Amino acid sequence: MLADTIIFAAGLFAWTLVEYVIHGTLSHIFATPISPLHDVHHRDPHAIFTIGAWVPTALVWTAGIAIFGMSAGMIFYSGIVAGFIAYETVHYRIHFVRPSSAFEARIRARHLAHHFHAPDMCFGVTTPIWDRVFGSEPSIDRMSALEASVANVAPLTGPTNVRKISHYLRLAQ
After folding, report:
1. How far apart are CA 161 and CA 153, in angstroms?
2. C-alpha angle 132/32/25, rounded to 5°?
3. What is the pLDDT of residues 54-75, one digit of tens each?
4. FRET partner for 49 with CA separation of 20 to 30 A, picked from 2, 12, 88, 156?
């Protein structure tokens, strides 16, 4: 039981690196198939582009459980999937809900600073760990100024606009 908990927690932690790589490397640093979808989200944060990842993620998880049961690999992968769910929840709250804690206020400020003023920094949405490791975390003074610059940004209202993504992608071509 303790080993399974540690393996699951390792999967959750691994998600934070996957998140950083997807957001920073595959969406910003290099031009990849993910980049245009992410660009849409930067132009209009109502746009949720990760919705297409849910079906394959669920299919792989379901097939993995059916084939391998709750093996160590599937427990680890379950941690990654749980991290993805947490990311989606946090990311939605950053854009659509007022922070309910100091922690939420801090990660919201970091992400909004990324959106509005520092697209080449603050790639970690749920944690700044990998920004610090890979040097994409602003200095303390710059981060304070960035956070202050977005402190009064109101949460978005209205529904997400998943349907508009195809419209934006057609415009980008």
Report:
1. 20
2. 5
3. 889 999 999 999 999 999 999 9
4. 12
Record the tokens describing residue 158, joined without a space. 């209205």
Assigned token pair, 46: 């109502």
Closest CA to 27 of 13, 17, 14, 42: 42
| DSSP helix/strand/coil, 121 | coil
- Give CA–CA dist 29/119, Å, rounded: 10
pLDDT digits (tens, 9 = 90+) for 87-119: 988 998 999 999 999 999 999 999 999 999 999
Which is nearest to 110 in space by CA: 155, 141, 150, 50?
150
In terms of Cβ atoms closer than 10 Å to its own Cβ (0-12, 13-18, 19+), residue 30 is exposed
- Listing DSSP states for 6-72 in one string gives HHHHHHHHHHHHHHHIIIIIIIIIS--THHHHHHHHHH-TT---THHHHHHHHHHHHHHHHHH-S-H
Residue whose tokens read 């419209």: 167
Per-residue pLDDT tens over the stretch 15-43: 999 999 999 998 888 888 888 878 888 88
Q: Which two tokens stand for residue 54?
A: 């849910």
Going by C-alpha positions, the residue among 106, 143, 138, 139 that lies closest to residue 125 is: 106
* Gyration radius of the chain's alpha carbons: 17
